[in-house]
Write a structure and sequence with these properties.
Blueprint lengths: L8 H6 L6 H19 L5 E5 L3 H4 L5 H9 L7 E6 L7 H12 L4 E7 L5 H7 L4 E4 L1 H4 L6 H17 L2 E4 L5 H9 L4 E2 L16 H10 L2
Parallel strand pairs: 1-2, 2-3, 3-4, 4-5, 5-6
Helix pairs in contact: 2-4, 2-10
Length: 215
């Protein structure tokens, strides 16, 4: 999610009334799925998900499933990224609810792992498919001993649990090489590419929005 001038998602979300935030979160996923279908994307599609949506919107996840079915995107193609910086007051209940959707084919990731409140509880109780290490753990890790020790332990725990690890915010080859040495081979960051909203075929964008409005 980016603003029209390239603003990050946090700036976009801050512009919304808090009472509408979770509605926007739900609609953003639906719109992203419509756009992915219009673009013919056939790889994994990662969509952020605010976990507290479940407290206010019973269809927070089911609406995403319905949107995927409507455009014939297989659920196995969709990864819901749970933002760890939102407090999950009952991790066991949350894990139970998410496992219902996982049984239908959805995959799950913990986004920004190490930046928020719920990561270790989710790791123990939910065991996602992917853990995405927060950028603050990744930054300059090739020269930071304490971060290296923490990340090695996290990677080992995930390996024991059968969870894939992705390093977020990779910006240098030195960071990439360090992670490769400990067995991490999934990466995201400016080293590989920057947000490129302007590179999308522009006629497809209003078409995707129209598809959302028609639902």
């Amino acid at each position: 999610m980016r603003g029209r001038a390239g603003e990050p998602a946090s700036v976009v979300f801050a512009s919304f009334d808090p009472s509408q935030l979770y509605h926007f979160d739900r609609q953003a996923r639906t719109c992203a799925i419509a756009l992915a279908a219009a673009l013919g994307i056939d790889t994994s599609l990662s969509l952020n998900f605010l976990p507290k949506s479940l407290d206010t919107l019973p269809d927070a996840v089911s609406s995403t499933i319905e949107a995927a079915h409507a455009v014939s995107i297989p659920l196995q193609q969709i990864i819901l990224e749970i933002t760890e910086n939102e407090i999950i007051h009952d991790p066991l209940r949350f894990a139970s609810m998410m496992n219902v959707y996982r049984a239908q084919g959805l995959r799950f990731a913990i986004d920004d792992f190490g930046a928020g409140y719920s990561g270790l509880n989710l790791l123990a109780d939910f065991q996602p498919d992917i853990v995405k290490l927060d950028i603050q753990l990744v930054r300059s890790i090739d020269s930071n001993g304490p971060r290296q020790a923490i990340v090695r332990a996290l990677v080992q725990a995930c390996d024991d649990l059968g969870i894939d690890v992705l390093a977020e915010g990779v910006e240098t080859y030195a960071e990439q090489r360090w992670f490769r040495r400990i067995g991490v081979d999934l990466f995201q960051g400016y080293l590989y590419g920057r947000p490129a909203f302007e590179a999308l075929p522009q006629p497809l964008i209003p078409a995707a929005v129209e598809a959302l409005a028609a639902r």
